[in-house]
């Protein structure tokens, strides 16, 4: 059970929580000397597991070469941008920053600048970090409700929601606001319900955004690089105007990336005053050096890394879904590659709104399940999004599946 502590921090998770993890290696993180199987892996960042050998070598190399924080244009950032260009040949320029949140802030700034419009069309179920313009949620009525105090009142008037995976309703809303919209923004595969069937909806968004000349932003913080060493847009061959990346591309250090097409770049170039992208740590030599080295390693070894990730993820999904059917338990594991989620209903939701509705009757049981797994030294993240790394072994996976089954039998 979670006990109160005397932390001076008010970041999310610190209040009323004495479970302060201290280190990690491979597929595990450590709390008070005890190892826990980690299903978060840095919110999906750690494809290679915690403190991988290549990460340690990269840090040692960085220290040996006296690479330091340079608040100047630097070789490391420029070198990393070349790697990204090879990965995303249809993108013309890249902008480095420090987090996914910052990447989204600057992506929106670009859209507002080149369109002189203020309205954002946001797809439900997407999570874009702590961005005031997007820190809203919606229910069935698609009304924007703030997720935090302190958000300027006018932001609520400048966002309209369109329902994920609902082409008919989305088309009506986009058509209605097409002349006011600066952009459509979406997390194409969502941690709240990772559906590979979303491809048709994403194609629809690409086509209608082109038709009405609305900028399309893909927030690929969780799918970038984790999708077979590529990205969702490359995997589905659906190219947005602007993309945001981060997490895996930082190799374990903080990073945010905005990728833009030549058309978007040309529109930015004409603006006066120019669009501002600066910041003390933006494109810093430490993050870009580590990011480039880890990304390059993953690309060179992707034929070894990603088949293992796929097999691990598929086995976890298959074994649990078979168990749910056999035991008549109303639950299902949804998966896109190595991004998974247990959904606590046997219905077939097509978006976050439907998932929340179907899961409602089990809301009291889900925390019990998480606490049970914690007692078995399994860290199941509060947001429910499960990631795997290539470091999890057969025994750990079997242990994980066994304890998920025990928890479901106990509480569901």
Q: Layout of SSEs?
A:
Elements lengths: L22 E3 L2 E4 L2 E5 L14 H12 L10 H13 L5 E5 L2 H16 L3 E5 L12 E2 L7 E2 L6 H5 L1 E4 L4 H11 L3 E6 L12 H13 L3 E5 L12 H5 L5 E5 L9 E5 L1 H8 L15 H16 L1 H25 L5 E5 L2 E5 L8 H8 L6 H10 L2 E2 L5 E3 L6 H18 L1
Parallel strand pairs: 3-15, 5-8, 5-9, 9-10, 10-11
Antiparallel strand pairs: 1-2, 2-3, 4-12, 6-7, 11-12, 13-14, 14-16
Helix pairs in contact: 1-9, 2-9, 10-13, 12-13
CATH architecture of the largest domain: 3-Layer(aba) Sandwich
**Level-1 CATH class name of the largest domain:** Alpha Beta
Mean pLDDT: 96
Shape: globular
Please work out how many helical segments DSSP would assign.
13
Number of domains: 2
Name the helix and strand elements from N-terminus to C-terminus, one letter apiece. EEEHHEHEEEHEHEHEHEEHHHEEHHEEH
Strand ordering within the main sheet: 4-12-11-10-9-5-8
Distance between the termini: 20 Å
């Amino acid at each position: 059970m979670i006990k109160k502590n005397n932390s001076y921090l008010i970041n999310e998770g610190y209040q009323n929580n004495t479970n302060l993890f201290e280190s990690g290696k491979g597929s595990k993180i450590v709390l008070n000397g005890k190892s826990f199987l980690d299903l978060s892996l840095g919110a999906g960042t750690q494809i290679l597991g915690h403190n991988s050998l290549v990460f340690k070598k990269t840090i040692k190399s960085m220290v040996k070469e006296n690479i330091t924080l340079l608040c100047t244009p630097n070789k490391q950032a420029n070198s990393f941008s070349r790697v990204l260009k090879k990965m995303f040949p249809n993108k013309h320029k890249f902008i480095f920053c420090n987090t996914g949140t910052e990447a989204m802030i600057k992506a929106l700034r670009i859209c507002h600048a080149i369109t002189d419009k203020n309205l954002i069309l946001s797809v439900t179920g997407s999570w874009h970090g702590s961005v005031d313009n997007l820190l809203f949620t919606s229910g069935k009525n698609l009304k924007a409700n703030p997720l935090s105090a302190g958000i300027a009142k006018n932001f609520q008037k400048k966002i309209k929601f369109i329902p994920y995976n609902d082409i008919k309703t989305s088309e009506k809303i986009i058509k209605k606001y097409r002349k006011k919209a600066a952009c459509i923004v979406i997390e194409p595969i969502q941690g709240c319900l990772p559906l590979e069937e979303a491809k048709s909806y994403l194609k629809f968004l690409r086509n209608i955004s082109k038709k009405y000349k609305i900028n399309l932003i893909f927030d690929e913080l969780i799918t970038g690089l984790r999708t077979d060493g590529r990205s969702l847009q490359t995997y589905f061959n659906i190219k947005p105007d602007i993309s945001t990346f981060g997490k895996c591309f930082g190799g374990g250090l903080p990073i945010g990336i905005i990728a833009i097409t030549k058309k978007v770049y040309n529109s930015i170039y004409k603006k006066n005053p120019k669009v501002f992208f600066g910041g003390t740590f933006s494109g810093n030599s430490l993050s870009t050096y580590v990011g480039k080295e880890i990304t390059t390693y993953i690309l060179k070894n992707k034929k070894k890394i990603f088949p293992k990730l796929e097999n691990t993820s598929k086995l976890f999904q298959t074994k649990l879904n078979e168990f749910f059917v056999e035991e008549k338990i109303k639950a299902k594991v949804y998966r896109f590659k190595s991004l998974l989620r247990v959904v606590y209903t046997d219905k077939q939701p097509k978006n976050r709104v439907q998932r929340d509705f179907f899961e409602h009757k089990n809301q009291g049981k889900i925390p019990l399940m998480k606490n049970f797994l914690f007692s078995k030294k399994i860290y199941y993240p509060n947001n429910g999004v499960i990631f795997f790394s290539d470091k999890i072994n057969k025994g750990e996976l079997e242990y994980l599946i066994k304890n998920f089954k025990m928890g479901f039998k106990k509480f569901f």
